[in-house]
Every structure is written in C-alpha cells, then in structure tokens.
Design goal:
Elements lengths: L3 E9 L6 H17 L4 E3 L17 H16 L7 E10 L2 E10 L2 E7 L11 H4 L9 E5 L2 H7 L3 E5 L2 E3 L4 E6 L1 H4 L4 H7 L4 E6 L8 H15 L2 E9 L7 E2 L3 E4 L2 E5 L8 E9 H9 L2 H7 L7 E3 L25 H20 L4 E4 L4 H22 L3 H11 L9 H8 E7 L5 H14 L2 E6 L1 H15 L12 H29 L7 E2 L5 H6 L20 H14 L5 H6 L18 H5 L3 H12 L5 H11 L6 H18 L34 H14 L1
Parallel strand pairs: 1-2, 1-11, 2-3, 8-16, 9-10, 10-11, 17-18, 17-20, 18-19
Antiparallel strand pairs: 1-15, 3-4, 4-5, 6-7, 8-9, 11-12, 11-13, 13-14
Protein name: Glutamine-dependent NAD(+) synthetase
GO molecular function, one term: glutaminase activity
Enzyme class: ligase
Amino acid sequence: MGRAVTVATCSLNQWALDFEGNLERIFRSIDIAKSRGARYRLGPELEICGYGCSDHYYESDTLLHSFQVLAKLLESPATQDIICDVGMPVLHRNVRYNCRVIFLNKKILLIRPKISLANAGNYRELRWFTPWNKARHVEEYFLPRIIQEVTGQETVPFGDAVLATKDTCLGTEICEELWAPNSPHIEMGLDGVEIFTNSSGSHHVLRKAHTRVDLVNSATGKNGGIYILANQKGCDGDRLYYDGCAMISMNGETVAQGSQFSLDDVEVLVATLDLEDIRSYRAEISSRNLAAGKVNPYPRVKVNFALSCSDDVSVPTCMPIQWRHHSPEEEISLGPACWLWDYLRRSKQAGFLLPLSGGIDSSATACIVYSMCHQVCLAVKNGNADVLADARKIVNDETYIPEDPREFCKRIFTTCYMASENSSQDTCNRAKLLAEQIGSYHINLNIDAAVKAIVGIFSMVTGRTPRFSVYGGSSRENLALQNVQARIRMVLAYLFAQLTLWTRGMPGGLLVLGSANVDESLRGYLTKYDCSSADINPIGGISKTDLKNFIQYCIENFQLTALRSIMSAPPTAELEPLVEGQVAQTDEADMGMTYAELSIYGKLRKIAKAGPYSMFCKLINMWKEICTPREVASKVKHFFRMYSINRHKMTTLTPSYHAENYSPDDNRFDLRPFLYNTTWSWQFRCIDKQVNALD
C-alpha cells in the first residue's frame, strides 16, 4: 500500500568556506542515510559553503564554488535513489537568495529560496540575502553550464512550491520560518503537505533548546504531520556554537532526537513513520479540515519517486520518545568545550595557555578545558577516528591514543599563576591544587620585577613615583598601578604561549584563553589589554551566577575538590596591597554592585530594551521589598554611568563563546556607541522627577 516512509536528517559540523571538507561530510551523511534505508535526506542551512560566510556571500567565488560542489553531488552514484535536500546561496536574476536545492537521480526538482530571513541578535541575513516575497509563485531558473552538463536540464523551478511524490507531499521551511508568526508549515499543512522539513543554522544559547523542540512539536501538534529538522553543529569560524539537536517529530511528539553537544562531525537520524497515522490524526481535527477548504493551493512539483515501498505492512515504525534536556551546568560543561575543540583543531595550534588566578572565572575556564579533554577521550573510546586523528596532530604523535583526560590535559593545556606582591598565598595554593587535579602543565612566576621596571621607567622620565591609595596615593595613581600589573600579565601570557612548548622540546604554540565573564564585561570591570585580552574566551557569554553553579557541578561530577575553597572565597582582582597578609580588595566592593544585580541590569538593558528611565520603572516594582525608589534610582544611575564610561572596552573584547542573550559583545550582537555622554542628564532628570513624585 505504501504507508511507511523512511526519512533522514542530520547535524553536520560544517566550516565556512571549507568546500572540500563540507562536501566530504555531506557525502558521509548521505551514505549513512542510504545504508539505513532512508529515501529522503535533509541537511543543515547553507551546508555547502557553511553558514558563517558573512561578507564572503557577496563574492562570486562563493557562488561558483557552491555550484561546483553541487555538481559533484549530482554526478555521484552516492546520491542516486534518494531525494537529497542541500543548502547553498543562489543568484537568481541578479538577486542573492538563501536556498534549498532538492534533487533526485541527477535531476534538480526544485530550488526553494528562504522566505523569512533571520535578522536579529547574531543574525544579519538581510545584509547578504533577499527574502522571497512571491508566495506560491514559481519561476524558471536558468542553470549554470556546469550543472546543465550533469543534469541535462536548462531550467528548473525556482520559488515557493512543494514536492508531490507517489505517496506523499513534502514542503520546505528554512530555519527562521519555523520561528515566524506566519510559518509556512501552517498553510502547507492545510494544503495537504504531510512532511515538513526545516534546515537550520541555529546556535546555542543557555536554556534555548526546549524552545526549538516545543516549536517543532507544536507545528505538528495542531496540524498533524511529520516535521524533520536538520541543524548545523560546531564552531564554523566565529563566536557561535551551533548545537545540533536534529530531530524528527510526528503529530506533536518527538520520535527521534539528535545530540546537542558532540565531537562527531556527522550525525544522522533516520526514522520510519506511517503516513496513515497523519491522515487519521488530521481526520478528527474539524477546525483544520474546515480551514483546509479555504487555503490557496501551493504549486506542486511532481516527483516520480516514492518514500515508501509498496509492500511495507510488516515494516516497523518509530514510536514517540521523551526529549532529554541538559541542565544549564551541563550545557556550560559541554558547549564551550566542543567549541574549544573545534577552534583548537582547526587553528592547528598545539594547545591552550590560561592565566590561572585561583578565582572562579579562570577556574571555570580551566574546568571547561578539562571537560573538553573528557569529551575527546570519550569520543576516541567510542571509535571516533576523526577525533583520534586530530588529537594525534595536536600532540604531534602519530601513535598517540588519548585515554586519560588528565594525561591528555598535561599535553595540551598550560596554566600559569602570575604572582605579585599583592597576591595572597591562598590563591596561589588554590591554583596549584586545581592544576594538579585536572593535570595541566602548571607554571608559577612572579611579575614584581617587571612591574618595578615599568614604573621605574615612568619615574625616571617624570621624576614622580605613583603610590597606592593605602599609602597616600590618589585614585588615579591607585588605578594606574593596578593596570600596570594586569597588562604585564597579558604580555607574559603571550610570551609563554609562544615559547613554553619550545622550552619543553615540543613543536607548536598555544592559544591564550581569556576568562572575563559576561557581567564584568557589561560593567567594564576589567583592564583594557589585560588577561581579558586573549585569543578566545569560553566564558565571556556566561554570567557569574551560572559559573558558580557550574563550579559546583564540576565538584560533583569531576571530583575536583580544589574547587570548594575557590567557591567559598570572595572574588578579588588582587591588584591592591594586602592588609596584614590578607586580601582587602573584593570585586563587588570595587564595582559598587553585586554580580546578581549586574545580571538583572544586563537582561533589562538588552533583552527588555530598557534605557535608564525604563529600567528604573521596572526595578522599583521588582525591588520594592528591598529598596526605596531613591535607592533604586541611585543603583540604576551608577550602573549606567559605569557602563557608558567603560563601553569602549567592548570594542577590543576577546572573541567569546556566545551563551547569553544579554551579552554586550560589540562585534555584531550588541551594537551601541562607545563614546557616550556619561552624565545621562535628560534621562537621570526624568528618574529624579519620578522619585520626587513617589516620595
């Protein structure tokens, strides 16, 4: 009868402009799908060129090489007898579109351009592409000669259409279209489309995965049908980590779930599902059936091919499963770790160097590297040949097998405690003990000689010697002396990253890791060009609160007992003189606000789009039990004053793993001026007027 259809989706670790590697991974996914009996294979958004090409989309080379890869796919025997759905940019009548190219047996069936472009947050698709605004309209697309020579076709359909096979009907969505209020799957479903596909380039944000899953399941819950979602995975060249989670859903329930975090470059999900279950489900939704009679029909591209077999009564079909979500602490442990692995292997460096201060932030960064080592050893144990080959290249040993995370950590991870006369013995001991427990190659050094030399040059030139405030110096002197220490640590970090392996008789250099969290960046509580300046920062998009919870997770799951004393110690920069051998400086006292308050300010500023006055209005209600309106006004003014004074630091912020929607990353996510009128005179006057009225 032809009821059981077998379909495949995948998560691929594609890399922007890596056409050769991207093609190889696409072929592998098709081979796996076919070997498991699939008759349709869906891949991620723009998988041929890689999603993160950015302004390279303007280049004709990107279009040319994408078509060259498409030609390789079309002419290969590997793509025969399976409908292949791949993503690439296409130029149609001199307009660039983000497209799906769907083909079968050396014939292109349809080129479907994206209708709703992602243009918020980290996404800038309207910069490079134009949305297809001609609903249910199809035009002729004239194929380039390299494709004509393979397919024998001169033109193919281009536009908003669906595929009608012998046994069912398939409709396409591309990433953002699932999130849009008028998603195409709504009317496609009413028009009889039974299988919806979605090719995504969706990146990881803490606590976001459930939203994606809920959207997919609700799409078929209301309308019936099969929904297949593919997604990019890994770091494809910038701050984002695409978190997989390929899935297949039917009639509102998940039937197949892919991993969110994995070192596997290719992951394929295959499901066999009964079309009659869709028809039965839809039969009793009277509101759907009434609406179906009014819908404008989609153009149908007829395909002489079936996704099912004629004799499939005994074919087993997939049953619903319960989706398993990671906790935020697990997400921090896994997401940035996978991102670091991609960056390390693709940059062809020999490991990482981290200035380890013995505080929560640098310790959390060290734990993420340790988690990465765990993931590498686990992947090798599970037979991942790609990970094994990459590990051998990194350590420069063709026979090496990473089995123990601590031993692997020793090879690729160097930690460095940079003491000064203002450092306590406690932080030194904490850093050393954590390094021992994770297995890193640990260095202790003292920066006092370098600090004295730098300050000595200043004194020799000016005849003046700056002093800390505890010794009678001004606030300017105090801050300058702190900054000298911080900046010397950055210089030393890069020196040791370049030459530490040389001193050990090993080849290569190390990537320097930064460890400023998202809240400190927002407040500007960091020295410009200090150890926050690094090659990459795995925690730059994570809040202090989440990092503390992650540290507790590492204590329990990695048995890193050294973290207990780090958790209990107050955060401190240790840049001012000790008092009777003890730390007198603390972060929250320096900042004039708590980390918990900073998280709230950050979410209101970015996510709630609140300026000073709106933030004040929201907080007088949120904090009415603990603060008077006048106290709230004082806190809001202090935050905005400090934020605007320090905003210039965001222009040089180390590229950080994006994990929070209130990140102040100036690169493309949080676009703001960096020269403000820091008095905020008009805004603060509105706040004062409201405070007086409330008083």
